[in-house]
Every structure is written in C-alpha cells, then in structure tokens.
Amino acid sequence: DEIQFNTGDVGFIIICAGLVWFMTPGLGYFYSGMARSKSALSLIMVCFLAIAVVSIQWWMFGFSLTFSETSGNPLIGNFKYAFGHHMNGPKDVLPIVPNLPISVFSIFQMMFAIITAGLIFGGPAERMRVLPTIVFIFIWTTVVYDPIAYWSWSENGWLRKLGSLDFAGGTPVHIASGAAGLAYSIVLGKRQGLGKEKFKPHNLSNVFLGTALLWFGWFGFNAGSALGANARAGMALLTTNLSTAVGGITWVLIDYHREKKLSALGFCSGAVAGLVGITPGAGFVSPCPAAAIGLITATVCNFGCKIKGKIGIDDALDVFGVHCLGGITGNLLTGIFAQKYIQDLDGGYSYKEQGGWLDGSWNQLLYQFIGCVAGFFWSFCITFCLLKVLDYIPGLNIRVEREAEVYGIDQSEMGEVAYDYVSYSQADIMNMASAVSITNN
C-alpha cells in the first residue's frame, strides 16, 4: 500500500531545511567580518561554493553513503540512493524516519553537510587559494563527513549502536569541521606578518549579521533534528535559544573581567559557542542543563581560543577553539545531562536511547568520549593527508604566493573585492588627493 506521510511533519522539516540553508550565508558574513577587508569576499565565496559542491555530491552519492540502511556495514553505507534512486516511489521509506519522504529527509540532511564544509575555512582564512577548495570540499565531504555522520546517525552506524548520543551534529558537524580547520591551518602555516601586524576584524556589523543568521537558522538545525513537529522539537528550540543567550553573556563577562570593555565580537563568539555546545544535546536535555551547557561551553571556548598563540598554530578565525572544543564540551555534557523523558516528548518517532548521568547511566560519558575521539582523529588525519596530496597536484597548490597574500586573497584569487576602496593602492590615493587639491585651488 502507498505510504501516508505526516503532512505536518513534512511541512515542518521543509521549513527547517530552509532555515539551515540560511546558516551558510550567515557563516560567510560571520567569517568575512572577522577577517581583514582584503580577504573578506573570498570567505563568503567559499561558503557559497560549499552550498553548490555539497549539493551535487549529496545528490550523486553523499546521502546514500550516509543514510542507506541496506548495507549493514557499521562504517559506511552503500549506493542504494545514489543519483536520487529509490527516493520517490509510493513505498520508499527510511526506517529511521517513517513519517517523512526520503527526499525531504535528504534535503534537510544535505544542509548539515553544507554548513560543515563551510565551517572548515575559518582556520585557513586569508592565505588559502580558492580554486582547490572546490576539489577539497567534494572529497572531504565524501571521505570525512559522510562516514562520521553515518557512524553517528545511521541505524547501522557503530557509534549509534554503541550508545553515543548526538542529537544534531556535535561530532559530524562541529568536531569534524574544527579538526579539519586545525589540520588546514597546520598544513598552510602561519599568515604573513602574524605577531607583527594587527589582525583585527574589519567589519563587526557583518559579524553581527552573520551571528543573527546563524542563531536564526540554528532553530531549524536543532529543532528540525526531532524530525517532526512535536514537543521534542519545541524543547530543542527552547534549549537552543537559552544556551545561546547564556553563552553570549558569559563570553562578554569573561572579556570584561580582563579588559573592562564590553566586546561586541566577544558576544557574537559566545553566542556561537552556546549554539555549538547545545547542538549534540538539544533534544536530550531540559532548560536548566541547557543554561549550564551555554555557560560551560562559552567558558571553555573563551580560554581555548588562547591556546593557538601558545602552541604556534594560526587558526585564523578560531574554528578549532569554538567549534571543535565547543563540540567536544557539548558532547561530554550531553553524557551528563541527557534524560530519557526528553526523548519521549517526540511521541515515539525516533530511535530510543538511554539517558546520561542524570538518569543513572554512568557509562554514557564514556560513550560520548569515544565519539569525540573517533570524530576528531578521523577528520584531522584524513584532512591532513588530503591536503598534502592536493598540494602536490599541479594547479591545486593550496596556499597563495607571498605577494598575493600581502595583496589580498580577493584581488589575487578572484579579481574582485568586497569594497571598492580596497582596490586602490597608496599611489592611487595620493594621485586622487593631488587631483582634489588642484581642483580646489
């Protein structure tokens, strides 16, 4: 018989997919504002490249490798759904989402893969070539994101069978992207002039715009991971907003204690840290633990961002300090605060897992730790090797030349700039000033 899907759930997930799509342009503005003006446009560009490349990869075989249920393999799926096959028939259904058409579930999950690829480029910002990122995104999504997402979310994935809890992507999204960003930063080396020049965000208005889009889109990211319009989605929405708010205030107060200034960048960084921290536990924890998660994650990330200077790694926009450390913190705190009754709010749609320490499941923290370690080392090691290989391929060398870096990634790689005044040299400015002076005289 033809399957009758829940139209309310279908409409809800379609809306959530649109919200998550908005996160990637938001990320572009967030990163762009944090960078210097001469490389601002390239960071928006690579985020949109992630949208395009991952959309194609996901349609070709990415979704199938991540969610096909027929392989029985604990490490990776098969090609059952490659190129959109077996998605639109009247009897096509995934056991883990019987209330949704496979096509709707696929497009929702595709948005997660897109934002994950985009997150990576905060690490190598201001010194990476743009062209190789097209190849990198395609291969990285296939060999890093798809396997880790399969481990965490597929009914056959070994992390899920082990009992590791990950509601919306602590390991596949944040730990994986943070570890990859760290590897990218190490392979590229430091930016020219680091430690001698001031590397300050050029446009905090864009940082706020990006934060707003991320915060807004994250409602679909976390609430949509309930995979239905139900009370669990509402709880995930509530915990997401609360953790974000607490994270933003926490970071600001820590910085105020140091500098006696209220930092706009600090608020935005803390809000994103709160979003990252609550991601793995949004559908497992109640509001009070969510506030604690926001506070603890923002604190850990604030101090974690100071590490890079001490160990000599140039993670330009703190993708490791916020996303990887935030994802690890959120994963571990989920093992402490997760409760079974929160899972039951979805009315029985999802696969039921045990709670955390609050429910007396003392081994849950170990499962969460195993997920963190597996996700980090798989992403870091594969990314490191992938970049080394790409760098040896003619035309795909991953770092710009010294002169191009000083000139700016936008102009050297794209021939375009975010702001017209960036394209003027000092000589041009002097000539224009002379012309104005002559005219006035």
UniProtKB/TrEMBL annotation:
UniProt membrane topology term: Multi-pass membrane protein
Residue spans crossing the bilayer: 12-31, 43-61, 100-121, 133-153, 173-191, 203-221, 233-254, 261-278, 284-305, 317-338, 365-390
Pfam families associated with the record: Ammonium_transp
Chief subcellular location: membrane
Domain Ammonium transporter AmtB-like: from-to ranges: 12-419
GO terms under cellular component: plasma membrane
Keywords for this protein: Ammonia transport, Membrane, Transmembrane, Transmembrane helix, Transport
GO MF term (any one): ammonium channel activity
Subcellular locations according to the entry: Cell membrane; Membrane
Keyword Ribonucleoprotein among record annotations: no
NCBIfam families per the UniProt record, alphabetical: amt
Family, as annotated: Belongs to the ammonia transporter channel (TC 1.A.11.2) family.
Protein name: Ammonium transporter
